[in-house]
Amino acid sequence: MIKVSESAKVQILHEISQSGSPDESFVRVGVKSGGCSGLSYVLDFDTQLKEGDQEFEDRGVKIVVDKKSFLYLVGTELDYSGGLNGKGFTFVNPNSSRTCGCGESFSV
């Protein structure tokens, strides 16, 4: 399961409400090869499910993860920071053994 912090929930619902189809939109998270530590996080808003997608809902936010990425993200919390030290979504991943300095990539 992927969890959503309260601050991430507020930001996600705000961004979805600005989209053209808020009732059908969801957050798609995943991983891809690349970055300083080997794997990078991916976050996007989508309206189309794909074969093999895993669906979750936490705090009223629908989250979709492809099957391969789920193995790396199980137990992860999606957070959002709007502070002075940087603005954006972050992943708190208990599966990562090493994270790069910017927090955008990891390894297991």
What does this structure look like?
About 20% of the residues lie in helices and about 40% in strands. The chain is an alpha+beta fold. The protein is globular. Strands 4-5-2-3-9-8 form a six-stranded mixed β-sheet. Strands 1-6-7 form a three-stranded mixed β-sheet. The protein has a single domain, classed as HesB-like domain (Hypothetical Protein Aq_1857, Chain: A, Sandwich). The chain contains two helices and nine strands, in the order βαββββαββββ.
Give the overall shape, derived from the CA principal axes.
globular
Total tally of structural domains: 1
Quote the average pLDDT. Answer: 86
Strand order in the largest sheet: 4-5-2-3-9-8
> What is the CATH third-level topology name?
Hypothetical Protein Aq_1857, Chain: A
* CATH architecture heading: Sandwich
Low-confidence stretches: none
Summarize this structure briefly.
The chain has 108 residues and is an alpha+beta fold.
How do the helices and strands line up, and which of them pair or pack?
Elements: E1 3-4, H1 6-18, E2 26-33, E3 39-46, E4 54-58, E5 61-65, H2 67-73, E6 77-81, E7 88-92, E8 98-99, E9 105-107
Parallel strand pairs: 1-6, 2-5
Antiparallel strand pairs: 2-3, 3-9, 4-5, 6-7, 8-9
Give a quick set of tags describing it.
single chain, globular, three-stranded mixed beta sheet, Hypothetical Protein Aq_1857, Chain: A, alpha+beta, 108 residues, 2 helices, six-stranded mixed beta sheet
